[in-house]
Amino acid sequence: MRNALFQAICKVGIFMICAQAIIHFRPREAYEKYLKLLVSVMILIQLFLPFGGFLLGESVGETAERLALFRERLEQEFRLSTLEAEETDKLLEQMTLEEVRRRMAEQESENVEESRTAELTSEIHVSVEPVELESRD
């Protein structure tokens, strides 16, 4: 890392020397402020790239690779969660259908029992004969 930082400082130093030469041999004095602004921005960019990598602890390419890997994993997990949600929906639908069938069977058996009870009670005939009471006079 120190070697990369040293190389960046060397490159910036060489660039500043060349930039000062260009500013010194400018065609007109009116261009001086624009050239200085341009050179300043270019120096800031050259300084930011190595220090940005130093602060992040890795180069920009490695960061891009990690982001791509993260994106792939995220998409894969999304696909898996979608499949799991579909399977859960199917299971829930199946369980609901089974519950409906079970309740319908229970209701049918209750209806059968009620009809049998109704048949039994309808077959019982009770006959009542009138009884005369004797008077005791």
Overview of this structure, please?
By secondary structure, this protein is mainly alpha-helical. The protein is 82% helix and 0% strand. The protein contains three helices and no strands. Helix 1 (2-24) packs antiparallel against helix 2 (32-56).
Quick recap:
With 137 residues, the chain is mainly alpha-helical. It has helices spanning 2-24, 32-56, 60-123.
Number of strands: 0
What is the succession of H and E elements?
Answer: HHH
* Percent helix: over 70%
What does the overall shape look like? Answer: rod-shaped
Structural class from helices and strands? mainly alpha
Distance between the termini: 135 Å
Measured by DSSP, the beta-strand proportion falls in under 5%
Whole-angstrom Rg: 47 Å
Q: Runs with pLDDT <50, length 5+?
A: none
How many DSSP helices?
3
Biggest sheet record:
none
Query: Whole-number average pLDDT?
Result: 81
Question: What are the key terms here?
Answer:
137 residues; mainly alpha; rod-shaped
